[in-house]
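Q: I'm a student working through a structural biology exercise. My instructor gave each of us a protein and asked us to get a predicted structure, then write a short paragraph describing it. Mine is DUF2269 family protein. I'm not confident about reading structure output yet, so if you can add a plain explanation after the tokens, that would really help. Here is the sequence I was given:
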Amino acid sequence: MIFGITLIILGILAAPSLLLSRKPDAQELLDKITPYQGWIGLAFCVWGVWGIISSILNLGWLTTYPIYWATFLAVNVLLAALGFILGYGMINKHLLSKNEEAKAKGELLLAKLRPLQGKLGIAAIALGVWQIITKLLFFV
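A: Happy to help. First, here is the predicted structure for DUF2269 family protein. I'll explain a few features afterward.
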């Protein structure tokens, strides 16, 4: 269930216009979170990459629990992608700054992902709700 909650939070951070259109006074809250957005993104990116590795290591779930495995993989891909977008400044500063080739590849990846940020944010919110519902219904 923690994945669902974190995905919803990450989706709101990635698509703030969605939240602001429904609740205009949320801008104050988003302004408080913005200075920490890089660290939040970095943490979610690492968490997502670890989850992708974990889903590959648990490929056996695909035969027993295919929907759960696919959801697990999709959640972690979204965590990694949105975490990378939101935390690119910190990732660039701490991990990519010493290697020009890695920095160029990081900028290329960011250029490909940035136009999808709003759609990925909405997908993260939807998948977060799906994750919470499935945990409440099937794994109580």
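A: Here are two points you could use in your paragraph. The first helix runs from residue 2 to 14. The CA atoms of residues 11 and 57 lie 26 Å apart. It's a good idea to check both against the output above yourself.
Q: Great, thank you!
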